[in-house]
Design a protein that fits this description.
Distance between the termini: 44 Å
CATH architecture of the largest domain: Orthogonal Bundle
Structural class: mainly alpha
Oligomer: single chain
């Protein structure tokens, strides 16, 4: 994670599950640190989104924050860090596969954030958390572009609108190096535009742009 503890006991506590503490007769586990880390994560994430996206209103910032701090996102980070291997678990939790449980991994990562905050302060924990936020944000955009058309279709159907339509508006460049530009229309209005080296890629990019437009709470169809 790129951080060295000045007080290693805080790291140890951040890795101590309740099951281990109970078996060892110890009073403390990582749950209080998890409480603190959850708040720290929320503040760092809110600040990062506020600075990264000055154009977004409060509603869209809140929705993006929910994705970035979600349990699945935190669990993926914990898995990459092999955090499960370092946890102190009781025998029962160990046998039940606790080291691979997404909820447990996410909670323990939040506890580590709390430990870093106590050990090094806000700037230190911010430097640890920000790269994780950037990675989650990049993965989110990648996933959207990978199958944005399917996801957009699901969104429009859920809102009772007609299926999205894709209109090729331009082809730029020579045949061997052509760039396609596409508009995505939702409920008869332009909701997103995209371009790519094939019509399929351009449609996916336009669908991803439309999904960003539709992140506002459900309501009237988007207006071009």
């Amino acid at each position: 994670m790129g951080y060295r503890f000045r007080t290693p006991e805080l790291l140890t506590l951040g890795l101590t599950h309740r099951s281990w503490a109970n078996e060892q007769g110890e009073e403390e586990n990582y749950e209080r640190l998890e409480f603190l880390g959850d708040a720290v994560l929320g503040l760092v994430t809110a600040e990062w989104l506020y600075r990264q996206h000055p154009e977004l209103p409060e509603g869209q910032l809140s929705q993006r924050k929910a994705v970035l701090v979600s349990k699945p996102a935190l669990a993926r980070h914990a898995q990459r860090l092999s955090l499960g291997e370092a946890l102190r678990l009781g025998v029962g939790e160990e046998r039940s596969g606790g080291r691979d449980k997404a909820s447990l991994l996410a909670d323990s990562l939040e506890a580590i954030f709390g430990a870093i905050f106590l050990d090094g302060g806000f700037d230190a924990v911010r430097q640890v958390i920000r790269p994780l936020l950037e990675r989650t944000d990049e993965e989110r955009h990648h996933q959207r572009h990978q199958d944005a058309k399917t996801r957009l279709q699901e969104v429009t159907q859920a809102r009772g609108w007609d299926l999205p339509e894709y209109l090729l508006v331009a082809e730029v460049g020579p045949d061997h190096d052509k760039l396609f530009r596409v508009e995505c229309r939702v409920a008869g209005e332009v909701a997103g535009r995209g371009e790519g080296r094939s019509k399929k890629l351009a449609e996916q990019a336009a669908a991803a742009a439309a999904l960003d437009e539709l992140e506002d709470p459900p309501g009237d169809p988007p207006v071009s």
